Amino acid sequence: MTLTHVIYNNPDIPKALLQKVLQVSGPSTSQLYDENALDTLNSTHMIFLISPKCPPVAQEDDAFLNKITHILPNKKTAVLVLDSQNSLSISLLAKIRSLSRKNLLYSDIIDTSTASDEETAVKLLSMRRSLLDNQDMPVSLLNDWLKEMIGHHNTCTLCTGFGTNIRATPIEFTYHEEAFYFLSEGGEKFANLAVNPNVCIALYQEYSGFDKLEGIQVCGAAMFVDLFSEEYNTVITKRQLTPEQLKKLPVTLHMIKVLPHRFELLNSLFRKSGYEAKQVKELE
Amino acid sequence: MTLTHVIYNNPDIPKALLQKVLQVSGPSTSQLYDENALDTLNSTHMIFLISPKCPPVAQEDDAFLNKITHILPNKKTAVLVLDSQNSLSISLLAKIRSLSRKNLLYSDIIDTSTASDEETAVKLLSMRRSLLDNQDMPVSLLNDWLKEMIGHHNTCTLCTGFGTNIRATPIEFTYHEEAFYFLSEGGEKFANLAVNPNVCIALYQEYSGFDKLEGIQVCGAAMFVDLFSEEYNTVITKRQLTPEQLKKLPVTLHMIKVLPHRFELLNSLFRKSGYEAKQVKELE
Q: Where does the source fall among the domains of life (chains A, B) (predicted)?
């Protein structure tokens, strides 16, 4: 079970940022660093928020570093420095980097006095994926599960958007040669796709208990398939439709294709085989 | 059954824009205006794309106007003028506006030589809602259906995003006093919500036949509910949880509340009562 411990060394860090870090990196808990704190951790992942006190106290940072030295090479770790103007923070980050070796999976600077909400969000998203993406299941087994879980569904939610405009569309799909295909008479999603081809697809079972969770999230890029092209005709044939039938319709059935580049699978059954319930598969 | 007829008067209009108009306003079909075309229409809605020929021919526009004069007051109509530089187009739009009276539900200018993809998308989305939003079912009956259809589900897709970043999250919900509540240990959706509170929620049944379509799309604004506030405690109690239980957990369960401002309901059963299968409910 994943648990991220967010450790900060300065009680005066912006509370709103601490909250965002906690939310984005959850399941999580936070703790102000003190002498005894680090001995009691049962977390799987650590995020250090480093923000020197004002005025900075070099000895405190050294004491902090000494305290975490034995943990750094052993736990998957991320470090966020919250003040780029302070040379002590930067040198602290450099020391952490050299101590953590391969377990420091993400480090970055968020200058809380100048960073926009968007910049902060992009860094936190990147931190989450670097730190928490998991794939301890063998790829071939993961692929089998993916195929089986997709096969449980014929309908998904296709999410599209641009700017602050978000759209969730329940829609039937055809999964063919590792792509999702959708037939649609039209609608708002097409306006979104004309601006932003990035989409996210969700497939899931209704909740029926914590031990029966099953869901897939797919990130991908959408494109249109030419009407009555070979690919179009192949997909409609899989739906028991013929080009002749569709040509007789008074309206056009547009085809959207989504090429996945990331799958996130959640399945309680994975645990029974000794794997984490959440698995991530990234495609090139 | 809705069918939008897209009529354009100039064979040289940008094909990409015609395609977008068709897709966003679908179910739809398009037709280049000619002498005989308008007598054969069985559409419920019309969109006129007006783009004068180069060089413009005033007589042709007048002929076009004469041809559509009898249709304008009778069908729900939108007009897009595709060239703001041409005074003939603008005067044609003014004439159409005066003839259509209440049935001209949307008119706008898209200058295809300067409009960005975003500007065009925003106008097409606005046109679609102005022209095609439907609520022919009495409000009290629609509210009953809404409550019943939401009651069929305990899980939905919560869609969040900002910029080109889109996220679809399957998540259990609690519907309480006309708001959706979600409990979450954390994740990418929180990074999106920190930038953009606009969300879309989808609830649906897996596809089991064209006569059994059922789905809801909800547009709303997300906010966080303070941990262990009265509202928080009320909602977790509805989930058979107690504050004491949650306080013992090693992690924080964040609560997201979504206040809906728009519902789109799709239900094949509406047709059996004589209403359109798609109904829209907008809140103040």
A: Bacteria
